[in-house]
Amino acid sequence: MLQRGSSSLRKRPHQWITLVALICLTLLATSSAAPRKNTKKKLPPLNLPPLKTQEQKMQLLGYIRQNMPTLRQGSRVSFSSQDLDKALALELGDTISQAAPLIDDETFIRRASLDLTGTLPSAEKIKTFVADQNSNKRSDYIDELLETEAYARKWARYWTSVIFYESEANKRRVNPEALEDWLAEQFRKGAPWDYITVMLISATPERNKKKKNDYGQDYGPNNFVLACENKSTELASETARIFMGISIQCAECHDHPFDNWKRIQFHELAAFFHPYTYKMPSQEDPTVSTVVKPRFLLGEKPYENMKSDARRVSIAAYLAYNPQNYWFARAYVNRIWSELIGDGFYDVDSLGPDGDVVHKPIVNRIAANFRYKDFDPKWVFRLIMNSQVYQREMRTMDSPSELFTAIRPSRLRPDVVANSVSHVIGENPQLRKEIDTVFDMNPSLPQSTLEGSIQQALLLMNQRELQQALSQSELKQKLLGITSNEELVQSLYLNVLARNPTPDELQRNVSYLQSSEKRDEAVEDLLWVLVNCTEFRTKR
Fold it and tell me: How far is the C-alpha of 216 from the C-alpha of 269, rounded, in Å?
């Protein structure tokens, strides 16, 4: 963790303080300041302590973090879910009158469980929750889920997918499982988002030549850099995209056509990650290149004579602790809001200065408070999920003016579909692997652009192992042990869709059971129908 105090810091305090001061002063400088006269004097060499190990880097970043003024203001600022609803109502104006009704307890417990843990609640848990008369039970349930291993694992898997989805790295040189395990550990411990980010950004994995295919991939935090193949340009592009929500990849070759980013800015960012002197190739002649000094997107420049490890530390500091860098907090908030609500304020990865945005004051206010709250990921979940905007019914929306008046129907991610199938038939590793492949989706695309596939439908309809497992499942045997048709149908719906059947569904299913000559086959048919309904693979 980022903490004050360490043996190496105490040994050479003056050197550390010098570097901290240099970075902090740069962070506090205005980003738009023009170069001044007489500032080109050759700087003396900076006698820095080593920044080779991750521990040494995190010690320094911990000092910089302690100097971040917004963290000290956090204790005096509050922003509740009720404040969020009031602020959003003001933004929506008359449109708020068209907002969808709030959901019932059955819908809430399924939605919250899927969103936070990726798993369905048990039938017994649903009954207990619905019967509970505690007025704070929804808030209490959110708190309960946030402390589970399933929460840590679900969101570790999500961020691993974000980092690796478009990676072209050699699979023998990366270890996504190690990254997922490390992220799960951080979410379980309640690590702040800035800590997670600077660990990933400042990592400098090294190859162990004594061991075949050992590139440091078994150490989880190394895998962001390894997913980018340790290439300066790829690291610049992915750092901006994932941690600032800004797509600047095309600026590697030319000025951004739709946003206000210049080609030189992309290469100045890439220079932070290069181990030696960085050179930008000419657009006209690729054999000609120009030396480019590192400079952050907001204009901050590190000390000229910094070595590569120190530059990694400085860009991590500029990214997470620069008071002017609103994008860092905003990108995280926008992603989580998109995942929970179905639409973002911005499209994910489109937070550039000229990106389309709705209700900007709201996302800015949440992002500012996220920073005040020590970049606590759980605070964002609590804020959104305890609000009315999260607890509204679902419906499709065609106009931007309707956004956030309801929850957009959302496709479940592959691991969540696999969990739902396991919830019905039990764990089957081979089937899980197949579902992960067939239901795979880009975690950075908006829900409104995602579409199902014929392969997905066919897998649930015809996959042999799944059909055999349904036929032999414990759930089927449990249902066959229920003599009352009404109770059987109610148990079926609670166990597969995590809700009770509507009166019409109850009547139709009971009629089917009554008209069937073979009860065993009839129950199997009903199980098959629910596993293949749209509701089974979407958020309700």
Answer: 24
Q: How confident is the model at residue 133 (pLDDT cuts 50, 70, 90)?
A: very high
DSSP string, 337-367: HHHHHSS-SS-TT--STT---SSHHHHHHHH
Question: How high is the pLDDT of residue 43?
Answer: 60
Name the pLDDT band for 35 (thresholds 50, 70, 90): very low
Q: Which residues are 307's β-sheet partners? A: none
Phi/psi region, residue 190 (left: phi>0; alpha: psi -120 to 50; beta: rest), is left
- The one-letter amino acid code at 178 reads A
Rounded Cα distance between 379 and 365, Å, is: 14
Q: Distance between CA 118 and CA 412 in Å, rounded?
A: 9
Q: Specify the residue for token string 């340009």.
A: 233
More confident residue, 61 or 527: 527
Tell me the average pLDDT across 2-6.
40
Q: How far apart are CA 13 and CA 376, in angstroms?
A: 30
Helical (H) or strand (E) element with 355: none
CB under 8 Å to 477, separation ≥6 — which residues?
none
Helix axes of 360-372 and 326-341: crossing angle, nearest 10 degrees: 110
First to last CA, the chain: 38
Per the rule left: phi > 0, alpha: psi between -120 and 50, beta: everything else, 93 is left
What is the SS3 assignment for 331?
helix
Tell me how far apart the alpha carbons of residues 394 and 348 are, in angstroms, rounded to a whole number: 21
Q: Which of 447, 421, 444 is nearest to 432 (CA)?
A: 421
pLDDT at 401: 87
Average pLDDT over residues 151-167: 97
**pLDDT tier, 19 (very low <50, low <70, confident <90, very high otherwise):** low
The percentage of the chain sitting over the pLDDT mark of 70, rounded to a whole number, equals 89
As a whole number of angstroms, the distance between CA 431 and CA 408 comes to: 29
